[in-house]
Specification:
The protein is mostly helical. It is built from five helices and no strands.
């Protein structure tokens, strides 16, 4: 008899014997209780805490203005205050709007000046109240 044939015959028999010993004789429950006693404290499931991103801190208009003025002052100090006969190169300037880029994705107001007042739509409801009444079913 070859080794492979013997293995083919014995494997199912051994598998059945092990199942019988573990489940029917109660060996599995005694193994589990011994492991728990060996641990010394109850097993507690721990959930991994996923760190959240901090909420962005929005600055007020005054803080933004102060920050821009500080940047302008630093730039003037860097190029030398008297390099242009004391003329403030940044007087009356405003920050440029960042251009749209392919990598930044598509956002609703990307590339729009934050100081742009937009379109006033308050008169839409007043002028077309008859249309809105018809749509409501009045």
């Amino acid at each position: 008899m070859k080794k492979a044939e013997l293995k083919k015959m014995l494997k199912p028999l051994i598998k059945e014997c092990i199942k019988e010993v573990i489940f029917e004789d109660g060996t599995l429950s005694s193994i589990i209780s011994e492991v728990i006693q060996g641990v010394g404290h109850p097993i507690v499931e721990q959930k991994q805490i996923i760190p959240t991103k901090p909420k962005p801190q929005y600055e007020t208009k005054e803080q933004a203005r102060d920050r821009l003025n500080e940047q302008r002052k630093k730039m003037m100090d860097a190029i030398g205050g008297d390099a242009y006969n004391g003329i403030n190169l940044f007087e009356g300037t405003t920050p440029a709007v960042a251009p749209k880029t392919q990598t930044s994705g598509y956002r609703a107001l990307e590339g729009v000046d934050p100081n742009d007042p937009g379109v006033d739509i308050s008169s839409v409801m007043n002028k077309s109240s008859a249309i809105w009444s018809k749509l409501k079913g009045k």
